[in-house]
């Protein structure tokens, strides 16, 4: 597998004792990848592994999706540049270069239907890991609130620009249509 693939799993039901084979077992796996093509390939591999294990053990296997899978994000660079300019106008002093994500996200599905961005805002906690308690705590500080206001303003200004600047709107849509063909 490629380095962008992530497979997260839990055994939500696996019996009551280690020395007793359970009547039923349930596991959930969440698979992510940088592109839909890689994701689909890895999902098939995982399914084949489960099928092989069930054949080896004589178990019955049922596979179902417990959640819709996500597409990779297709950032509209023209829209992203407009947002970045508005973020500077809103008082942000530093805009970092975008980093390549390590998997699919729910916004990816949206980006296949309409021009989209998925910006991140800094709020003075560079060591905080997303989805952690430290991250959550940093968001409710004064710096967190200030960053949120800058982000809201930049998004609002960008929406306004799209409504009032036909050249920008055309460029955003042209890029989107080109990316859809790719």
Residues in β-strands, percent: 5-15%
CATH homologous superfamily placement of the largest domain: Zn peptidases
**Helix and strand sequence:** EEHHHHHH
Work out the helix count.
Answer: 6
Rg on CA atoms, Å: 22 Å
- Please summarize the sheet with the most strands: 2 strands, antiparallel
Gross geometry: elongated
Q: What's the CATH class of the largest domain, please?
A: Alpha Beta
CATH fold topology of the largest domain: Aminopeptidase
Low-confidence stretches: none
Q: What's the architecture of the largest domain, going by CATH? A: 3-Layer(aba) Sandwich
Strand pairing plus helix content: what structural class? mainly alpha
Mean pLDDT over the residues: 89
Terminal CA distance: 23 Å
Number of strands: 2
Number of spatially distinct domains = 2
Adjacency order of strands in the biggest sheet: 1-2
Helix content: 40-55%
Structure write-up:
- The chain is built from 6 helices and 2 strands.
- The protein is mainly alpha-helical.
- It folds into 2 domains: 6-57, Alpha-Beta Plaits (2-Layer Sandwich), CATH 3.30.70.360; 77-181, Zn peptidases (Aminopeptidase), CATH 3.40.630.
- It is elongated and about 65 Å long.
- The mean pLDDT is 89.
Descriptive tags:
mainly alpha; single chain; 182 residues; 2 strands; two-stranded antiparallel ribbon; 2 domains; Alpha-Beta Plaits; Aminopeptidase
Briefly summarize what is shown.
This protein is mainly alpha-helical and 182 residues long. 48% of the residues lie in helices and 8% in strands.
Helices, strands, pairings?
Elements lengths: L5 E8 L12 E7 L3 H22 L19 H13 L16 H6 L21 H7 L2 H23 L1 H16 L1
Antiparallel strand pairs: 1-2
């Amino acid at each position: 597998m490629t380095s962008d693939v992530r497979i997260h799993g839990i055994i939500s039901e696996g019996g009551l004792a280690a020395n007793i084979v359970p009547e039923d077992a349930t596991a959930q796996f969440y698979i992510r990848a940088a592109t839909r093509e890689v994701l689909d390939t890895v999902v098939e591999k995982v399914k084949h592994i489960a099928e092989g294990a069930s054949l080896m053990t004589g178990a019955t296997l049922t596979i179902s999706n417990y959640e819709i899978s996500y597409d990779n994000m297709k950032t509209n660079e023209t829209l992203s540049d407009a947002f970045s300019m508005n973020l500077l106008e809103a008082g942000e002093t530093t805009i970092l270069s975008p980093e390549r994500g390590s998997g699919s996200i729910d916004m990816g599905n949206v980006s296949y239907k309409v021009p989209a961005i998925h910006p991140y805002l800094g709020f003075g906690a560079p060591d905080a890991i997303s989805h952690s308690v430290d991250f959550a705590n940093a968001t409710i500080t004064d710096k967190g609130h200030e960053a949120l206001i800058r982000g809201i303003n930049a998004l609002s200004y960008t929406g306004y620009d799209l409504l009032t600047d036909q050249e920008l709107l055309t460029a955003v849509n042209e890029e989107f249509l080109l990316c859809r063909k790719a």
